[in-house]
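Q: Hi! First time doing this. I have a protein sequence and I read that you can turn it into a structure. Is that right? Here it is:
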Amino acid sequence: MNGFRHRAAIDLRLLGEGQRGWVMAGIMGIMLFLTVLAGALGLGVARSAIGLDRQLAGQLTVQLVEPDAGLRDVRAKALVAAVAKVPGVTRVREADRAELAALLKPWLGDVGLDPELPMPVLIDVTATEGSTAQVSAAARRVAPQARVDSSARWLSPVRGLLGALGLVAIGLVLVIAAATAGVALLVARAGLDTHRDTIDVLHMLGSTDLQVARLLQRRIARDTLLGGAIGTLAALALVALFQTKLALTGSEVLGGATLAPVDWTLLLLLPIGFALLATVATRLTVLHTLGRKL
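A: Yes, that's right. Below is the predicted 3D structure, encoded as structure tokens:
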């Protein structure tokens, strides 16, 4: 017990109490706040991209443009029947005129409800992956002018944007982690320079460089955990608020960005990871500066 108190007292003298410790904790709090936000962005984007891929997998649209209303209706029924027989197709549904008119209303107004207005036929198809070519062939046998579009192709720019955001989030986490290691390095060197005389006395008493490194890394790890915990909790509260707002939008893409329990767990573990990073950086810096290796 007395030995532990003695080591703790040496630790406090070596690094100093008060303002320096709070500055270190404050810096780490800011670092973790930004890291958790970046990590939440990356995890949310990944969840959204996975959900988007799942929703768009096998989603096809068969489009038929035919000015003759009578011929259009006949070919539409034939298209539905032909596509439904394709292996791998699980769902075929023709969009009715009211739905199309609702989609066109912002541009055409009530004119879209005019029965004399030519309206294309849109058929929603759900099929297994790899069935696109067979659906296209079946549709064109009935109507050569029919066109089959993949929902994934139309939304590929959105998917690309989500991927880019994910890479940016990963980059931010790595940059902040490197900055954290740099801060720990500077603090360790400052502690060595400030308490050089104390360290010389410890060496004369038989302390090794590794023991001196432990004194410094214990203090820096404590400050990192303290500041990191505060920054993490503040960031998680902000993330929870954003998630609530996203859920209220009703958007499938934005709503899919909701974090899973495993994601929250990973974010909560970030302060521990950063404390370990700061500890390792401090240890290597002290040993290198004092001219010793592990």
